[in-house]
Amino acid sequence: MEWYVSFTALQLYAERRGGPVGKPKVVLGVSGGIAAYKACELLRRLTESGHDVRVVPTASALNFVGAATWSALSGHPVATEVWSDVHEVPHVRIGQQADLVVVAPATADMLAKAAHGLADDLLTNTLLTARCPVVFAPAMHTEMWEHPATQENVATLRRRGAVVIEPAVGRLTGADSGKGRLPDPTEIFEVCRRVLARGVTEPDLAGRHVVVSAGGTREPLDPVRFLGNRSSGKQGYALARTAAARGARVTLIAANTALPDPAGVDVVQVGTAVQLREAVLKAAADADAVVMAAAVADFRPQTYATGKIKKKDGQEPDPIVLVRNPDVLAEISADRPRAGQVIVGFAAETDDVLANGRAKLRRKGCDLLVVNEVGERKTFGSEQNEAVVLGSDGSELPVPYGPKEALAETVWDQVAERLG
User: Fold this and answer.
1) Coiled-coil stretches, from where to where (predicted)?
2) Average pLDDT for residues 24-39, to the nearest whole number?
3) Before 90, cis peptide (omega within 30)?
4) Is the N end or the C end of the chain the one with fewer CB atoms within 10 Å?
């Protein structure tokens, strides 16, 4: 399975960063919301990928999913009170022994208790004693999420080093819809394993806003045809997921991708290079870093045919005249809306990779340029990548062949270092 392979590949990164390399101990906290049933899928992902998971539900959570379900899926007994198995001191030991604590769903009540250090059950006691990374996946109605009290509690938790994932937008309880939906369990799992792989308790991008572009733009020729490229968006999505796991507020500008929205990421869908430019400039206005991983078309047809271009017997087709698209990377590098902003570009090359990369770095004026060799069966659509990260300071960092998320971690390492 793709997620299991990715987890295994990240063990090398975990070793370099000092993260757990054995069977990581994870505490899955479940608070009392209707989304509690979705945590069963998250639990399955964690256990089947080699994690030792202890589920700690609140008493209210057991109204939605019973203790027998949690015990059967985790292989551990389930308790909600500090008075169970007192001789093992569970209210202290569970948090002390954990490599990661993830609370999904995290209700407004749970976020408030965690922010104010309340400890009236086993889960809140566990949160106080944990010295490992902590991830909260909120789920509640939009009004509750947007309430100033909840926003202040979230800000407090993030300031202390917790990763609080932004909730998704979608259908809520009943007929309501809006921001507050629990992110997809598979995407929460992606955040958890990235946090575990890093093995640090302080997210180095906390309080930062980063913008990532992904995918490939398409330039319409007529209502059914377009000029495009082979980019799948997987590298950009890996960058977005990784930044979210490192505590950043992430805006992902996605061009023609077919990938699920990463947990905790604001996704803006675009189609053409001009649309991408508008979205990037808007999002970059208050961003600390911009990573341009999308494959942006250099050219577009000069004219757009409002009807499908027909093939005419005995006649050659009219030539397609191309005009240049805006150079978004060069534009934001030259005119940065914020002092100290770090700009990262990507260069997909087919020959003379490093020479072309260095020339492009000088021409674009960005701080970092990730250069990789591409081809019909290389990089595009693959789960793997190999690259060299070139710096405007003359640095050159090779990244060996491996999962795209490992390259993403390296890129953010370099960005975090420059952000200071």
Assistant:
1) none
2) 95
3) no
4) C
Domains of the chain by start residue, with CATH: 2-198 (3.40.50.1950), 209-419 (3.40.50.10300)
Residues designated as active site: 229
- The Cα angle at residue 136 between residues 340 and 419, in degrees rounded to 5: 10
The span from the CA of 5 to the CA of 44, in Å, is 16
> What is the helix (H) or strand (E) element at residue 235, kind and residue range?
helix 234-245
pLDDT in tens, 345-375: 999 888 888 899 999 999 999 999 999 887 5
| Rounded alpha-carbon distances, angstroms, from residue 366 to 30, 127, 218, 290, 410 | 44, 41, 24, 10, 17
Q: Looking at residues 18-29, what average pLDDT do you find?
A: 76
Q: Which residues are annotated as a binding site for CTP?
A: 298, 308, 326-329, 346, 360, 364
**Tokens describing residue 195:** 């946090």
CA–CA separation, 27 and 24 (whole Å):
10
Six-digit token string for 138: 């909120």
pTM above 0.85, yes or no: no
- DSSP annotation of 325 reads P
Residue 376 vs residues 229, 230, 379, 380, 381: alpha-carbon distances, Å? 10, 8, 8, 7, 10
- Residue 281: the pLDDT is 96
